[in-house]
Design a protein that fits this description.
The protein is built from six helices and 15 strands. By secondary structure, the protein is α+β, with helices and mostly antiparallel strands. The structure holds zinc ion (3 copies).
Length: 329
């Protein structure tokens, strides 16, 4: 029987539709393009990109030349620009905020690899530290309220470059979805005097049916009210509000967890397109005892259709318990 399930944080309802029981293989779609010609993200092509903002490279190598491991550059086609002041204006009751911010690309390896899952965990730890360093950088800019880190892997997930990369879009506004999570988790905290993510992780680890991976400091779950088949959330076990407060030593473990679950996703679903995005407390929010950073991973197995777009309610044909069982290493 299908179930209506409510996400405890934002109150969003989803339908877990078991009658529609598709086999995972049936909803997998292939997305790889094999073009290698003149990839500007490959080592040696630095002059094809904008000048680097940050690079993991030996001191003996020069900026914007070869020898790097991870490279952060401004997006050539930015959605926002870094010049100007944040100004609010508008007409009547309609408000407008100028698109001041930053749009950056994190090029995650020098060789032409496409999936982060295939990079060594020690290298991915450096990638995660680069994410952290960019959050710390944007925190110094009072015009910017939020930095959203996200990855598009595969054309179906919106990737226009296949070389392994993520992006950060820093904006003067906290994006709506994070706003909803902040509001929902604040209400939960008011009622229960604890963080809903801490409560949820504790409950999930107790039950275990939706746990994909658990280590000393992190867990990956298929959330109870998964919107999409094989949706996963990577959550720190201890209460952590800001991603950039993560301890330097923890990145090795975090990288191991992330590459493990992305590798399982590729193995179980034949290397599907996916997105992931990092939800963390707004840059200048200070202490947020109700909010807890997490990384949401969405395989792009089916297109959203009219009902999802029109109603904002998702129909998920794969129960998260089944997804977790398949994904578990
Ligand atoms: Zn490349
Ligand atoms: Zn928490
Ligand atoms: Zn979230």
């Amino acid at each position: 029987m299908s179930q209506f399930r409510q996400d405890p944080i934002v109150g969003r309802w989803v339908i877990v539709a078991t009658e529609r029981a598709a086999k995972p293989q049936e909803i997998v779609q292939q997305t790889r393009r094999e073009s290698l010609q003149a990839c500007p993200f490959c080592e040696g092509q630095e002059e094809e990109t904008t000048a680097e903002l940050l690079a993991v490279r030996p001191a003996s190598t020069a900026a914007d030349g070869p020898g790097w491991q991870v490279r952060v550059i401004p997006n050539k086609y930015p959605a926002v620009t870094s010049d100007g002041e944040t100004a609010r204006c508008g007409w009547g009751f309609q408000r407008e905020v100028q698109g001041v911010g930053a749009h950056e690309v994190i090029v995650e390896c020098p060789q032409h690899e496409t999936n982060l899952a295939r990079l060594p965990a020690a290298h991915v730890a450096d990638v995660l530290r680069a994410y952290r360093d960019r959050f710390k950088h944007h925190k110094r800019d009072q015009r910017i309220a939020y930095a959203l880190l996200f990855k598009n892997y595969g054309a179906l997930a919106g990737a226009s470059m296949e070389h392994c990369h993520s992006q950060i879009l820093a904006t003067p506004i906290v994006p709506e979805l994070i706003g909803e999570e902040l509001a929902g988790s604040w209400e939960f905290h008011q009622r229960n005097n604890r963080c809903v993510y801490c409560a949820l992780v504790e409950e999930e680890l107790d039950g275990g049916a939706r746990v994909v991976v658990q280590t000393a400091n992190y867990a990956v779950l298929c959330p109870f009210a998964s919107r999409f088949p094989f949706e996963m959330w990577l959550v720190p076990l201890r209460h952590q509000e800001h991603f950039d407060d993560e301890r330097d030593d923890d990145f090795a473990e975090l990288a191991e967890v992330l590459t493990t679950v992305l590798g399982r996703l590729a193995a179980v679903l034949n290397d599907p397109a996916y997105n992931f995005y990092l939800h963390t407390s707004p840059l200048h929010a200070g202490a947020t005892p109700h909010y807890h950073w997490h990384l949401e991973i969405f395989p792009r197995l089916a297109q959203l259709a009219g009902f999802e777009h029109g109603g904002g309610m998702f129909i998920n044909p794969i129960p998260p318990e089944d997804a977790a069982a398949l994904l578990r290493p």
